[in-house]
Amino acid sequence: MRLCAWYLYGEKHRGFALNPVANFHLQNGSVLWRINWMGDTSPRGIGASCGMMVNYRYFLEETASNSALYLGSKQVRASEQVLALVSQFQQNSKL
Fold it and tell me: CA–CA separation, 36 vs 77, rounded Å?
């Protein structure tokens, strides 16, 4: 889950999220909200994402500012759960 959090939050292509689904939601003003272990146990889900599923949350009053923040300065808004996983990844990573 830590690696998944880092992939969605920290891995970039030209400053934007490497994952195309993440990039779509973040451009539209969402918050990277939650990573769910074994959230998709279908054969396709296991093959594509090791069964992990991600929730993006839209706070309607913040979508415009979140979108502008992401598009302008390439900053990803994320929940405490995701940020904690990112922090754990960074502490333990040898990258």
Answer: 18
